Amino acid sequence: RLSCIRNNTWLACCGVLSSGLAVLSGFGLMLFCGVPFVVTVANAPFLILGVGVDDMFIMIASWEQSLRKKEKSNVKSLLAETYAEAALSVTITTLTDVLAFFIGTWTAFPSVRSFCLYTGTAFVFCYVYTMTFFGAVLVLNHKREQGNRHWLTCMRVDVGKDEAENSCLYNACCIGSCSRQPSQPEGEHPMSIFFKKYYGPFVTNKWVKLLMVLLYGAYLGGSIYGCTQIREGIDLRNLASDDSYVIPYYDDDETKYFSTYGPRVMVVITESVEYWNESVRLGIESCAQSLE
What we know:
Belongs to the patched family. One of its GO terms (cellular component) is membrane. It comes from Sylvia atricapilla. It is a multi-pass membrane protein. The protein is mainly alpha-helical. The chain has 3 domains: about 10-185, no CATH class; about 190-230, no CATH class; about 260-290, no CATH class. The protein is built from 9 helices and no strands. α1 runs antiparallel to α4 (about 110-145). The chain starts with 8 loop residues before the first helix and ends with a helix. Residues about 180-185 have low confidence and may be disordered.
């Protein structure tokens, strides 16, 4: 926003900070409990940031709607209205994410188990911080706006007759408009207007609804067919970058030089043996010959 009062830059920064606090709390708790930290866990903060910022947008949108409905209401009723609108959506999102990742802890792979534990716990903290920390930030930001304070310095912005004598740059920074007139409170967001007046009536048209059903049926059929084509396994070529020397190595290994041979067979001796003893070495040789 161009208005120096209605600008919500710090609100957005605190929303990202809320996700960061969730990552720190979740990771700290898991490390304190002795859960191994594997390299794949380093990707978890990006997931937490995505969900945390999404929750932040839902909270801000609900707050703005409550503010337009109850312009003269006190902060308690505004926050109650915001939680009534946003908390259900945020709670369902968090529950599904946490459930999905905690189910992943049943896997037999320890690295995947650690990743799911770290990420699921961080999602729980993300929900807690959104419902507590970010709600408090919303109230503080609202009080700053009510006090007519600048978004960056939090100094009171007094709009009066003297502003007409100031430069355009000063008015743009301290008032939010070069016209030397105080910026007016903003109405409904253009995106909300678009979905309410245009997109909503469009998708509720009977022909559009029929088209949506047909498209979803085609998508569902393609998805079911795709599931039947899934084959278990992994191609080692996919683990390397396209320009890696590993790819031509595997191509030559399978097609050019060793295509007539089957898979490698390896024998592992799980006990400590006296390799310096000649009789032991002969026994190992005899075992290998028997397997061949």
